[in-house]
Amino acid sequence: MSSTVPATTVYAARKIITMNPSRPQATHVAVRDGRILGVGTLADLAGWGPHTLDDRFAAQVLMPGLVEAHSHLMAGTLWRYTYCGYFDLRDPDGRNWPGAATLDGVVAALGQAEAATSGQAAPVVGWGFDPIYFGSQRCTRADLDRVSTRRAVGVLHASGHILNVNTAALELAGLHRAGIAHPGIPLGADGLPTGELKGPDAMGPLFEHLGLTRSFLSGDEAGIRAFGKLAVRAGVTTATDLAATLGDDELGTLLRLTAEPAYPVRLVPLLRLIGITPKDAVARVVQLRERNTEQLRLGRIKVVADGSIQGFSARLRWPGYYNGAPNGLWYTAPETIRECYTLALQHGVQVHTHTNGDEATELALDCMQTALRQHPSPDHRFTLQHCQLADAAQFGRMRALGMGVNLFANHHFYWGDQHRATTVGPERAERMNACRTARDTGVPWSIHSDAPITPLGPLFTAWCAVNRLTASGRVLGAGECVSVADALRAITLGAAHSLHLDGEIGSIECGKRADFCVLEDDPEAIDPERLKDVRIWGTVQGGRVFQA
Amino acid sequence: MTPLPTHVIGGYLGAGKTTLVNQLLRQADGERIAVLVNDFGELNIDADLIVGQDGELLSLAGGCVCCSFGSDLVGTLASLQRRALPPQRVLIETSGVGLPAAVARAARLGPGLQIEGTVVVADAPAVRAQASDRYMGDTVRQQLADADLLLLNKADAVSPETLAELRAWLPSIAPQAALVACVQALVPAELVYGTLGMARDEVNRPWRPTPMAPPPAAPAADTFVSHCIKLPPGVDLAALSERLRAPHSGLLRAKGWVLDAQGQCWLVQTVGTCTQLTPAAAPHGAPSGTLVMIGLRGQFEPKDW
User: Fold this and answer.
1) Cβ contact (<8 Å) for B39 and A330?
2) CA neighbor of A97 nearest in space, from A451, A455, A531, A534
3) 3-state secondary structure (DSSP) of residue B168
């Protein structure tokens, strides 16, 4: 008989933060078959029978495995290129890449990459570039010509909306010529492009020449593996890929990799509604649900309503952009969104909708109202992603319609100063990503990084929501700050709830997956201003231990 | 290399963009047309035109193809031009919320293309409400304003009074566009193709207007007359331009070439109220100029020319 009882491991920890209010703290957690058998004191767990006591975490703090509810596998793919960001960043293998504080520093980093590049025609690519920290100095092709006059050189901005290239790259794309008239391609005094390419239309012709192909966007095998390592370093045990195409090849790779015994993160890819009708998209995810595994969760749809605020392509309500820029772009027609919502509700499919501007949010709410009249659906958990500019009335409508929200808390730190000065002005910048209003209104809410747009790291994201500090040190909208406890809930149970997974993950309690974030410091005890500095040991995912 | 003539087809969701594409494919007359759509999601190419599918590419009757460009318009255009039998004409169908002028600007970044015009299809029963929609109004108005040929489609689905109101109202939004009412987006292909910015050596290509489509049964649709005139050398270019842009003449398109008093050959292109004159090499041994015009039947008077 005893041979049929699976092994039980009891981990002793300095402290276990459970996120279960009826038993918020514990010292021991019992794991069997990758699931949590129980949590409490060692005595509480004794009744489950024989076990192995594992005290490797005796000095650590365990909390539920962190859930990143808005990221992209591209966060892993990008690391094969040169990091050109302003802030220090760790790569999937833990190596620290120092930030470049000047344009010369960026050129030097790319120069080193160039020297290490073999192959006559191989391009040199950088990412994470953010020249807003370099004052008014713009990067031009002359700067990148210092890296190479022979190879194509390109560097993607952190926002993902701008690309800078050298002359060789412009020549390859046939854009090193006079007479180009495109708002996304500024021209120099010589009438030739400066090498700055703004927006997808202008960047598009360069991607092929820089080797930035489709697999770069969707995540190939190496990228998916690198993403797994990044997740472990960030304490993340479940992460979304929020805009997947999920073709047969891609799906095959995901199924294969996530089934590996050492793949450390549960992936939740959402099918993007693009190049496919709502009817086909719903049918596809209903079919995909059949292929769900423990580690790969399919069956959700992502809709993109508008663009981005810092790219001036988000749809804003009156009075629009602070600097007078024209209103942004619709990416999906209202009829299409409505049809998608209606069909999805009918088939029990969950839809997440990207709405950056408040006009896009309003449209999504209207579409939801119409769709719900047709297919009343309790607990549908449709979620607005980013939803950065929503006001109190819109949070009220979300509550009434049963919608959740996943707010882009990291934006305050990286672009808050720009939002205040340029995009939306001081007043609306202070209400952006209104965690406190969401919480007080009773809207289910979570927070995210949108990695690789900002780095994967839910504890950093939580710090952003708690402190709302900008890169220049300004507190932007103190009234929307939340407590550490609320923020920690948002990156665990809150995010799990947005994915309909809160019955399985997000807290440490009997029956849930044995997913833990293993910490060296106690996030509940540390000064809230230092929440981002909490050291991460690694994770336990489905009972498997992964040291960062 | 002759630039590839390229046309942008815009208009809000449901206006009839794909119906127009189908009509143009049916009038291909041996020309290899490549249709680029933002995504296959909105595509509804007539089944009898489809020969086969290979991934992102639909093979169509007569060597035509259709493919989706997603986020990479320029790359898709470049790969089409590398085909063994490259297209001779490209139609880019925008998404229902796409802005045609922005798509045209993006397409111009591609190599070897010539954007020859922007056709926007408007949904006669719906366009007025769409243009004042709380969310989509500015997008729809911008789409209309981007047109140089505006097709008022489904003209049979509104009353004659409404049609007259639409004809009076649309020019306030798209003053530069030639306006044509139609049913099932049925218009002669040359109305769409005979557009601005044609290649210099286009004059060497024989101009063969295909026979006008039979007048549709629906009386609401405009019908057309085409007219060809010979112009002796010594044409007064300013006077010709003035005539071509005369209001209420019913002229929709003009295309051809003329010789001025100095013997210089000029390519002439008129669409709507815009005329473009481009210096060109005279066709070999040509004694005189030629101008082909397409006008609204009942309004355009061939005998005036």
Assistant:
1) no
2) A455
3) helix
Q: ipTM of the predicted structure?
A: 0.88
* A280/B75 Cβ within 8 A: no
**Is the domain of B38 the same as that of B126?**
yes
Which residue among B154, B187, B220 closes a domain? Answer: B187
Tell me the CA distances in angstroms from B110 to A32, B103, B113, B226, one per residue in order.
59, 11, 6, 33
Is there a contact between A202 and B109 if contact means CB atoms under 8 Å apart? yes
Gap from B232 CA to chain A (nearest CA, Å): 35
- Residue B69: closest C-alpha in chain A: A275
- Give the model's confidence band at B285: pLDDT under 50 very low, under 70 low, under 90 confident, else very high: low
Q: What pLDDT does B1 receive?
A: 62
Taking 50 as the pLDDT cut, the residues of chain A under it are: 1-2
| Dist. CA B272–CA B255, nearest whole Å | 12
A247 contacts chain B (CB < 8 A): no
Confidence class of residue B169 from pLDDT cuts 50, 70 and 90?
Answer: very high
Chain A's closest residue to B77, CA to CA, is: A205
Does any CB of chain A come closer than 8 Å to the CB of residue B129? Answer: no
Pairs of residues, one from chain A and one from chain B, whose beta carbons lie less than 8 Å apart? 82
Q: What's the number of domains chain B is made of? A: 2
Test the B interface: residue of A171, A335, A343 with most B CBs within 10 Å: A335
Strands A25-32 and A8-17: antiparallel
Tell me how far apart the alpha carbons of residues A193 and A180 are, in angstroms, rounded to a whole number: 8
Q: For the segment B219-259, what is each residue's pLDDT rounded down to a tens digit?
A: 788 888 888 888 888 899 999 998 888 877 888 888 888 99
| End-of-domain residue from the set B187, B218, B233 | B187
| Domain containing residue B88 | 4-187
